[in-house]
């Protein structure tokens, strides 16, 4: 047996009092075997102010004086006073620590402790996030356990407030499971653990009953004294309530007796003492060798670089996400416009299927003529895109329209020929007739609905410039034509138009939400623009729009309709979107 196997540390003296009679003479020195303390399982308990932290510090001071390294998990930041006499690495989250550490430092901390004999205070009191401190404790404990399987070097890990890690009630997290594992299997590897707690009733009993040595300081709470009674006996449960500061029952596997002892007072600064009225004076603390923390600082620097890089990447991702959302909105608007265009085209094609003025007309069931008509429609739509850009410039790039000061678009000047573009929708004889009418300066409306729709689709004229002369169309023709335009709009546009009809005056965002859509300003104003260009609403100033369908119908007949006729005509057109809204509800 080597000297180190029999080496002891002196920590207390036998005390005179209930529960300690007849064991040893009061004043007898109490020694603890170093190897059993370093590799065993210990538990120190007592209410606040009873001396439990002093007892732990006395044991640690003796071990450090004998050059035995330890690692202290300090939950309250009260062990840094040991640095008054000893070189310890104070690692934690506060600036007062020698080094700020995170779980990435765990392996290096374990290496310093076991391979370079560096005592460590792992101060977790400064971590605002309990999950971060728990992860740090877990990782350090894992690396200590893994390294000790090979090194088998006597080493002690002390855990303050151990009930937070190994509670009697409730589940344990990874840190608690790892500490229990060390308590059960660490001894054969040389890794010991001692838990400190002021509430033995809250500590897992499986841990307490497996300990090789225990210290019971003053306890007064009934649940805690019950624990003393179950483990030590009722006479000790009664006596423990009257113990003095630093006094406690010492129970060890290597001694068959229960000794009442008075522990020595710690020699280093008591950072855990209750503050008094005197000025607090922090003592001079021993600094740790800079070479010991160089690797830790490199880990910190690398972690900082990674966090900076992660922050940059997150910023880039946020920008890309914003761009994606913008493109999705634009895509949705483009889909709306595409659906509208398709529906407009279908309405045009359906009318174009009938022979025009007794001629052959077009048969759109024939693929070649249908394709030609589509080409002409797309050509007309190109002009509409340009006009849409002009609208966007006039209405502002932020999704809000101007206050109505911008003058309206000037309609394109009519070339020699008919005052409305026909784009091949007329037969040759009708084209000649239209040319003659244009040469004569006639202002009559085109005789067919198709040319009116083509002109409207091109966006070259506002609806007011497309009114037929009085008597050019029957009231049924106007209803059919306007109903076709309404039907060419989507369900969202119908809902918005119904909202304007109900409110009279409103704003695009409110109309968009009323139609069952989101509060996306970009989509709301885009869809609102389609209603305005069709003449169903008009700008009322200050970002508001008003319902304009009745006025539009009245203008179609140069105000010649009577009130009843006007109401009937408007109601017939409104049925195309009001009924749909009612059905939806």
Automatic annotation (TrEMBL):
Which GO molecular function annotations are given, in alphabetical order?
3'-5' DNA helicase activity; 5'-3' DNA helicase activity
Key words of the record = Coiled coil
Q: Which reaction does it catalyse?
A: ATP + H2O = ADP + phosphate + H(+); Couples ATP hydrolysis with the unwinding of duplex DNA by translocating in the 3'-5' direction
Q: Which SUPFAM superfamilies match?
A: P-loop containing nucleoside triphosphate hydrolases
According to the UniProt record, where is the region Disordered? 1-28, 391-448
What sequence ranges are listed for the domain Helicase HerA central? Answer: 26-109
Q: Which residues form a coiled coil?
A: 296-347
Q: Which residues form the Winged helix domain?
A: 471-583
Give a yes or no for keyword Protein biosynthesis in this entry: no
CDD domains in the record: TrwB_TraG_TraD_VirD4
Which family is this sequence assigned to?
Belongs to the HerA family.
Quote the protein name from its UniProt record: Uncharacterized protein
Q: Which organism is it from?
A: Haloferax gibbonsii (strain ATCC 33959 / DSM 4427 / JCM 8863 / NBRC 102184 / NCIMB 2188 / Ma 2.38)
